[in-house]
Amino acid sequence: MVYFGEFRGKVDKQGRIVIPSKLRNLLSVKKNGAIYITKGLENCLFIFSEKMWESQSTKLKDLPFTKGDPRTFTRLFFSGAFQSHIDKQGRILIPSNLLAYAGIQESIVIIGAGTRVEVWDEKRWSEYYEQSLKVYEDISEKLMEL
């Protein structure tokens, strides 16, 4: 499964966001399946389906805990994680600590990013997008060399 697209929304007073139906159907493959939200990179939030969470967890648990970088990354990745479910209105709850990490106050952008869904503060996403678009072609060339 591949997540794609860009969607705009808002966070309600209870810290809930609506997951767009195109992404919702992919995220909750199992009826009442869990989804996992955690600290992403560049101060966004990552949302994983249960299947992708298990896959990522397996990869991360195999990193050597005796080395500093893997230890730090796994600590931050797992300590910020929150299990949620999509309710009947298509909403998920995002805890206040994760909203604060991402700088999310009201307006958000939800994007499909291949193996995960990302939630961004709208202003932060616009800034990131503008900067990244400038080097998009250069990055493409470098990736093709791999």
Question: Your description of this structure?
Answer:
The chain has 146 residues and is α+β, with helices and mostly antiparallel strands. The protein has a single domain, classed as Chemotaxis protein chec, CATH 3.40.1550.20. It contains six helices and eight strands. The strands form two sheets. The protein has a six-stranded antiparallel β-sheet. Strands 2-6 form a two-stranded antiparallel ribbon. β7 and β8 form a beta hairpin. The longest helix is centred in the last third of the chain and has 13 residues. It is globular and about 45 Å long. The two termini are 24 Å apart. The mean pLDDT is 92.
Descriptive labels:
single chain; 146 residues; alpha+beta; Chemotaxis protein chec; 6-stranded antiparallel beta sheet; two-stranded antiparallel ribbon; 41% helix
Evaluate the radius of gyration.
Answer: 16 Å
User: Main sheet?
Assistant: 6 strands, antiparallel
User: What is the distance, rounded to the nearest whole angstrom, between the alpha carbons of the first and last residues?
Assistant: 24 Å
- Give me the secondary-structure category: alpha+beta
Beta-strand content:
15-25%
Second-tier CATH architecture: 3-Layer(aba) Sandwich
Spatial order of the strands in the main sheet? 1-7-8-4-3-5
Q: Give me the count of strands.
A: 8
What name does CATH use for the topology? Chemotaxis protein chec
SSE ordering: EEHEEHHEEHEEHH
CATH superfamily: Transcriptional regulator MraZ domain
- State mean pLDDT (0 to 100 scale): 92
Which regions are unreliable across 5 or more consecutive residues at pLDDT < 50?
none
